[in-house]
Amino acid sequence: MKKIPDLGFWKLWNISFGFFGVQIAYALQSANISRIFSTLGADPHSLSYFWILPPLAGIIVQPIIGALSDRTWTRFGRRIPYLFAGALVAVCVMCLLPNAGSFGMTVGAAMMFGLISLMFLDTSINMAMQPFKMMVGDMVNEKQKGLAYSIQSFLCNAGSLAGYLFPFIFAAVGISNIAPKGVIPDSVIYSFYIGALILIFCVIYTSVKVKEFPPEEYAAYHGITHEEKTEKTNMFKLLARAPKAFWTVGLVQFFCWAAFMFMWTYTNGTVALNVFDTPTVESTVDGVTRMVLDTQSVQFQTAGDWVGILFAVQAIGSVIWATLIPMIKNRKFAYTLSLILGGIGFISIFFIHDQYALFASFALIGCAWAAMLALPFTILTNALTGGHMGTYLGLFNGTICIPQIVAAALGGVILKLFTGPNQVAPEVNMLVLAGIFLIIGACCVGIIKEKTT
Q: How far apart are CA 411 and CA 104, in angstroms?
């Protein structure tokens, strides 16, 4: 089997550069979806349910994209056509989703429109995101994979930083941060427009700069025989043959991604109530009256902008921590330490009521995020050989989607257990639970079966 040659830094950079634009889109989604649906009229106990469809679509689409791209070769490459198609759909949806409340629809119709748009947005972002991980697995040797995924992590967090800050910046320069009932503020709408523009530019750049290995060269580098190329293997057989790293890292992933699903869902309400003292109002839905936050208030929308700042701090902490992770020789120790620091960050939010003190909490959460973006894929791709790299990475996406589905399905039920009569939902308790999940995930790192390179 031929050895994949070392690549220069800028070639590694170009392979992942499009990730910057994709992550801007993902950051805008993760930071603003709860804010958008709350503005449209969703109850806090129902917020998590709006997050079920995106990972559900992802768990179906990603393995299919992986399997198809394993068998694809065009003049543009094998992964890049799927990357480009996903980005194109994401751009279209990003121009529609924040306008869900502006088309004169009823509340129910607006939320249904937003929900369908969210499903397409998350699916297309994942369709655009996954090929970047596959290309590193395809084109980078084992020695450089740690560096390649660290570059990817850096670009990912730099994109997150931009996406998180856009609404705050637009509000700061005078674009309206409030709107009539049920309508999304212009500061959020314009953020999605700019994010869509940057996304398509970054994806075009990567498509032009990166030349994937031709089929024969790819087969030589990955030790694929003619029999393996013509072999028809279904996904269930591949799962049965998956290396131990697939399952042991997947267990850690379960607790990590459930934790971050709680963060994306409940941070906005937590900051609005605990830090900005958002006023409450009575809301009656289906004959049931509850106390909820006043989403038309200046405090609620200001809190929404501040959540973007906090997520940006998380991204900065992640960028800094991502540069330190490769310096820690024991990869599993780095993984464990990162998740523990993130768990401490989540739990500390319960005790903090100052908007600036939350910077420390979210910087610590960034440590966990940096490890989640780089280390699982480094461990897994080092353990994979042969011609099913894309399929395995698509299947591995299930370790990201399944915990999000579980967390979204159970989030509202758990929050109701914490909510007393005539009490505003204590969404901060869900962030404490997220911290506990990360610490459990850290304890599970010890069972990972890692290939010795």
A: 31
Residue 76 resides in a domain:
yes
Task: Give 164's contacts (C-beta < 8 A, 6+ positions apart).
Answer: 27, 31, 308, 309, 311, 312, 315
pTM attached to this predicted model = 0.76
C-beta neighbour count of 432 within 10 angstroms: 19
Q: Would residue 256 count as lying in a domain?
A: yes
Alpha-carbon gap, residue 95 to 452, rounded angstroms: 46
- What percent of the chain stands above pLDDT 70? 94
| pLDDT tops 70 at residue 392 | yes
In this predicted structure, the answer to whether residue 335 has a pLDDT above a threshold of 90 is yes
**453 pLDDT higher than 50:** no
> What is the count of structural domains for the chain?
1
Structural domain includes residue 3: no
With beta carbons less than 8 A apart as the criterion, state whether 243 and 452 touch: no
